Structures are given as C-alpha cells and as structure tokens.
Amino acid sequence: MPQSPAPIVLATWSFAIQGAHNGWAALESGGSALEAVCTVAREAEADPTVDSVGFGGLPDATGRMSLDACVMLAPERCGSVCAVGHHLRVTDLARLVMERTPHVMLAGDGADSFADAMGMPRECLLSPQACCAWERWRAGESALHPKDQGVDSGALTPSLSSLIGERHVPHDTIGALAIDTHGVMAGACSTSGLPFKLAGRVGDSPIPGHGLYVDPEAGGAVATGNGELVMGVSGSFLAVECMRRGSTPAEAVREVLERIERRFQPLVDQQIAVIALSRDGRWSAGALRPGFAVTVADSAGIRAVAPDFVLRENGSQ
Ligand code: GLY
C-alpha cells in the first residue's frame, strides 16, 4: 500500500510564520489540512501590519476595502468570495460557501449578506495605517499605483526579512497549502487585492485555477503577486496540470513563471511567486524576481526560506 505523504504546511511570504505555527499545531493535534490552511490565512487577515490581506490591507482608489478569498480541497470541493466589503474573515466565509451552499463563488453585497446570515460580525476593514497610506496616495505623495508597486511596506520584522532576502511589496496574497496526517491536501488564499485598484477590480486569488488550485489526484498550487499576470495563464491550474502530466513541482512552477514571462514581459516591479505541492508531498517554490520567501512547517521545524529558484536572478526587466 502506498505510504501517505508526511504532514506539511506551506505558505507564501514570511508574514505567514505565525499562522504556520498555529496551522502546524492544528495538524499535530489531528486537525484537518483545511483547518490548517484556514488558520494560516486567518492570522494574516487579523494582522494590521500585513498590508495586502485582511485588516491592514490597502483599499481601492476610492478608499474602500474589498477582500477576496478561496479554499479548495478538490475540483468538486471549493468555495470562494470576492469583493467582500464588511467582513474580515473571508477565508472562513469562503469555506462556508463551500460547506453550506451549492455554489462556488459569492461576490460583493451577496457575499456580505451571506456572511450576515452565517452570523459573522460586520467589521471595519480599513486600518488607520491603510487609510493614511490611501490619503498619501490620493494626494500624490506615494508613487504606488496599480502598475507600479515597489515600496517596502515594513510589514516584516527586519531581522527575518534581511535573513532571507525578502523584499515585501504590498499586493502579496497569502496562499497556503497543507497535507494532514490522513494524507488529505487543502489550500486557501486571501487578499485585499491590488492596492488602490479601480473599484470593482478582482484578481486571481478568489478564482479556482488562478490563485489556487487543488486536485488530490495531481497536487496543489498557489500563486502570489500580480493577479492579472497569473490570470492570463491560469497559473495554479497550469502548475497542477504540469504535475499531473509528470512534471516535478519545480518543473511545474518554472513552466508557470516562464509562460508569464514570455507572454507578459513583466515590468521590473511586477513580482509573481508560485508554490506547488505534489500529491506525494514533494514541493517547490519559485519566483519571477528576487525577494520572495516561502514559509514551511513540517517535522523539521517552522521557518521561512528562499524559493528554490528565481527566474530573473538579477531582478532585471
Ligand atoms: N494576487 C492578488 C491579486 O492580484 O489580487
């Protein structure tokens, strides 16, 4: 009988480290992979220092917050929400869409009404820091706009950030993949989307196959970075399909990044990173440019590490 893969939690960016601690603790106490990935995302959603997810995320051009999230166990088991304006726990909300409705995705007011019906509290999503950042951007004091991201957000502890060479830019979705002690795989992702985006813009994160895809017959993948680029190649679906056809996780990630590079010729400040996890527990992470870190929790410990490869090592155009 084939052995079950060892339990693991993987997540984008080092700001996932606290969530990974808690997600790993959940796995160790017999919790499901779904609970582990929701725990990782929930931590980031509540953290006001993370300016790309949940409370702390940067608003759209009109100063309104809108949050997106997705959870996935299999092609026939996924749920998502997008453009949520009044509820913070969007990953939990996406899970409720999966578990309590016949639908896959709820958007905007409908998603907020569903959250109300599920007893989730309405909350202010705009942190004071994010409001200040938006006011500076509106006054033209910040160079940050949808096609030009590249400021250091200060969301990382300096020691960890410099240790792994991570350069955080806002717009960094949290994406998590996990395998539990029963060998079940799950994924989740959560984001506030592109900072100062046009009102109504939705990116890759809440859309199965773009920001997140899981098929237990092949594996799972999550993407972070500029959603428009990921959406153009169905990034996470592409990675999983590569693994289904025999690619290693590293080959699958490379295929996604190379295709994005070929088709988009990304701007110097556009970053994409992908994590792929095969159904037998092998994994890899890669990034278009330097500055990405992946958080790992497994029997060897919990740490943030550099990805296996960076397509443009010198970060050039
Ligand atoms: N990757 C998140 C977004 O583009 O909205």
Structure report:
Helices cover 31% and strands 23% of the residues. With 317 residues, it is of the alpha+beta class. The chain has a single domain, classed as (Glycosyl)asparaginase (Glutamine Phosphoribosylpyrophosphate, subunit 1, domain 1, 4-Layer Sandwich), CATH 3.60.20. The protein has an 8-stranded mixed beta sheet. It has a 5-stranded mixed beta sheet with strand order 7-8-9-10-13. The relative contact order is 0.18. It binds glycine (GLY). The site of glycine (GLY) has 12 residues, from β8.
SSE topology sketch:
Blueprint: E1 8-12, H1 17-28, H2 33-46, E2 67-74, E3 77-84, H3 90-100, E4 105-107, H4 108-117, H5 128-138, H6 158-164, E5 174-179, E6 185-191, E7 212-215, E8 219-225, H7 227-232, H8 235-244, H9 249-264, E9 272-278, E10 283-287, E11 294-298, E12 301-305, E13 309-310
Parallel strand pairs: 3-4, 10-13
Antiparallel strand pairs: 1-5, 1-11, 2-3, 2-6, 5-6, 7-8, 8-9, 9-10, 11-12
Topology-level CATH name: Glutamine Phosphoribosylpyrophosphate, subunit 1, domain 1
**H/I helix tally:** 9
Structural class: alpha+beta
At the first level of CATH, the class is Alpha Beta
Average pLDDT reading? 91
Low-confidence stretches: 145-161
Quote the distance from N terminus to C terminus: 49 Å
